[in-house]
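Journal club side-thread
Mid-discussion, someone asked how the predicted structure for our own chain would compare to the paper's figures. Pasting it here so we can look after the session.
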Amino acid sequence: MTVSRLVARADRDVLLADERDQRQAQALMTSLPAHGARFTAEVEGEGSAVRVPDELSAMIAQVVHAVARGHAVTISSMPEELTTTAAAQLLGVSRPTLMRKVNSGEIPSHKVGSHTRLRTVDVLREQHDRRQRQLAAFNELRALEDD
């Protein structure tokens, strides 16, 4: 039997849920609606409860769903802005390739002094769009092979 534990890393935390956690998450999932679950947080010792905002409740529901399926959950935080080196690493491209995209206007950026910075949301959008283009190309190739 595995033991539920949190593995801390420099850039993220990984929750390794045990079988008991998985059973509890499965039981909770059966009592939650498919969409729109709302959670409250109880203050220990006080008995008072605080309503968790809808957006955070949706995140909690995703975590519970992942644990119920037996998946490890990774929690990572990112700064609002990234250096070009960090953005290139996140995208899996070289820094010169990233700078070509920045200079052509494909990815928005701004200057902080003489340094180029990118908003994390813009880099994540580019990462998502890149994956979508790769998937579309793969599906197109697959369709050609089926013909």
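Post-session note: The CA atoms of residues 30 and 76 lie 28 Å apart.
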